[in-house]
């Protein structure tokens, strides 16, 4: 190595270190804004396909940064486009923006007190899954990267997606509808990154997995037909409630005796049973609604087939009939192994080697999976639990809580992933 080459190497290293320090300073400076946005979204939650004020706030911010902004995507979605000063690849970053029909039950100064009607029932509205944090993080990322346009080699799409929790009955929405409306085109996206806050992982930590990290989610309905009769004379009719109990028992045998759980996990849960009107009448019909969670396409196909066969056979054995219907909510959230290995150094650079962990797959579901069916994607979990906390309240519960101080790492990780991906050859 010549003396000149050595000096150029030192100069390049010093310049890169200075740039990293400048970027870190910008992320530090924006933290308070990100927390303020998050708390505002938390206090003013909106349900799926009804995120009007949320979308308005997002769009206003993106426009203030000079981004090209499209609104009304998949009803209430917002997409921002940041074109760098140099040509290159196109990377997308996604945040979900909808809340849940949950009544908040904690002592936060910014807790939600919003009340609405959902499926005919009065309920509170709450960001009980952390989508408020995802939205605020991505707004912060957009601001940092917009101020560093000279370092952006290519194009960045900021996708603020509505209805991740599922659109209301009779409506379309979520990632599927965004894709149908062309969110991954014009310009065509080369890769997509997403994150989810985790109330059971301590702040400062990131969890990930190559391949399937979250399950495919199916909603199933079983309609059992019997024969109505007096409760004192069951032999005169066919009891659909009794048949339903046998079907539920049979479903669980699919998991315990037929699914090869050493390959991947699977779950069948009946979450609702509706039947009858009076204590002394055996009704004519019963309806069961539930969910199937799978992490392997072949296992999913087997479970769906066996549930249908089992429900129909059991009902027939007891003199009734059963009809089974399935509705797909998400595919398997599949992290492209090559993309994960390529970008893992960027995540470790943001969080530190010791704070990045490989985990096993979870049986939760995410419609981010639909984006990953079209382009390579990397989805990971960001810690949101306070250090030393003795109790982590689960997502989708009234007591769900996130420590705001974990959001800055989300901003830093997204910034690192974006710039490193666009600058890799």
Describe the structure.
The structure is a single chain. The chain is α/β, with parallel strands linked by helices and 425 residues long. The chain contains 9 helices and 18 strands. It has helices at residues 3-43, 52-64, 131-146, 174-180, 240-258, 297-317, 337-351, 368-374, 407-423, and strands at residues 68-73, 77-83, 86-96, 115-118, 121-124, 153-161, 191-202, 206-208, 211-225, 229-230, 266-275, 281-282, 285-294, 321-330, 333-335, 356-358, 362-365, 377-385. Helix 7 crosses helix 9 (407-423). The protein starts with a helix and ends with a helix.
Q: Work out the strand percent.
A: 25-35%
Mean pLDDT: 95
Helix content: 25-40%
Secondary-structure element pattern, one letter each: HHEEEEEHEHEEEEHEEEHEEHEEHEH
Pick out the low-confidence regions: none
Q: Tell me the number of helical segments per DSSP (H or I, 4 or more residues long).
A: 9
Q: What class do helices, strands and sheet pairing give?
A: alpha/beta
In short:
The protein has an 8-stranded mixed beta sheet, with helices on both faces.
List the topology elements.
Elements: H1 3-43, H2 52-64, E1 68-73, E2 77-83, E3 86-96, E4 115-118, E5 121-124, H3 131-146, E6 153-161, H4 174-180, E7 191-202, E8 206-208, E9 211-225, E10 229-230, H5 240-258, E11 266-275, E12 281-282, E13 285-294, H6 297-317, E14 321-330, E15 333-335, H7 337-351, E16 356-358, E17 362-365, H8 368-374, E18 377-385, H9 407-423
Parallel strand pairs: 3-6, 3-7, 7-18, 8-16, 9-17
Antiparallel strand pairs: 1-2, 2-6, 4-5, 8-18, 9-13, 9-14, 9-15, 10-12, 11-13
């Amino acid at each position: 190595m010549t003396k000149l080459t050595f000096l150029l190497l030192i100069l390049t290293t010093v310049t890169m270190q200075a740039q990293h320090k400048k970027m870190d300073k910008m992320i530090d400076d924006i933290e308070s804004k990100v927390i303020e946005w998050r708390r505002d979204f938390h206090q003013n939650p909106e349900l799926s396909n009804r995120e009007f004020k949320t979308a308005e706030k997002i769009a206003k911010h993106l426009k203030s940064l000079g981004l090209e902004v499209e609104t009304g995507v998949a009803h209430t979605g917002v997409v921002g486009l940041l074109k760098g000063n140099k040509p290159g690849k196109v990377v997308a970053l996604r945040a979900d923006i909808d809340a849940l029909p949950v009544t908040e039950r904690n002592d936060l100064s910014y807790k939600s007190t919003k009340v609405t009607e959902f499926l005919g029932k009065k309920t509170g509205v709450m960001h009980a899954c952390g989508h408020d944090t995802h939205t605020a993080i991505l707004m912060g990322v957009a601001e940092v990267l917009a101020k560093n346009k000279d370092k952006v080699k290519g194009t960045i799409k900021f996708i603020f997606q509505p209805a991740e929790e599922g659109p209301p009955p009779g409506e379309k929405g979520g990632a599927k509808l965004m894709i149908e409306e062309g969110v991954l085109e014009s310009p065509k996206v080369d890769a997509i990154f997403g994150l989810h806050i985790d109330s059971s992982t301590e702040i400062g930590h990131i969890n990930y997995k190559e391949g399937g990290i979250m399950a495919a989610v199916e909603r199933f309905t079983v309609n059992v037909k019997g024969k109505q009769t007096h409760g004192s004379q069951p032999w005169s009719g066919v009891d659909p409630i009794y048949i339903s109990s046998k079907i539920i028992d049979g479903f669980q045998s699919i998991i315990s005796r037929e699914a090869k759980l050493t390959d991947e996990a699977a779950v069948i849960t009946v979450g609702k049973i509706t039947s009858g009107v009076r204590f002394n009448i055996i009704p004519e019909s019963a309806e069961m609604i539930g969910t199937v969670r799978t992490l392997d396409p072949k296992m999913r196909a087997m479970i769906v087939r066996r549930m249908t066969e089992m429900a129909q056979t059991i009902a027939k054995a007891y003199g009734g009939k059963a009809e089974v219907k399935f509705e797909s909510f998400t595919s398997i959230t599949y992290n492209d192994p090559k993309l994960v290995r390529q970008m893992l150094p960027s995540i470790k650079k943001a969080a530190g080697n010791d704070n990045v962990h490989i985990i096993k797959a979870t049986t939760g579901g995410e419609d981010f999976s639909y984006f990953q069916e079209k382009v390579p994607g990397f989805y990971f979990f960001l810690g949101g639990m306070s250090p030393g906390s003795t109790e982590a309240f689960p997502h989708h519960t009234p007591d769900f809580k996130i420590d705001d101080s974990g959001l800055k790492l989300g901003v830093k990780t997204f910034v690192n992933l974006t710039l490193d991906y666009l600058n890799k050859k």
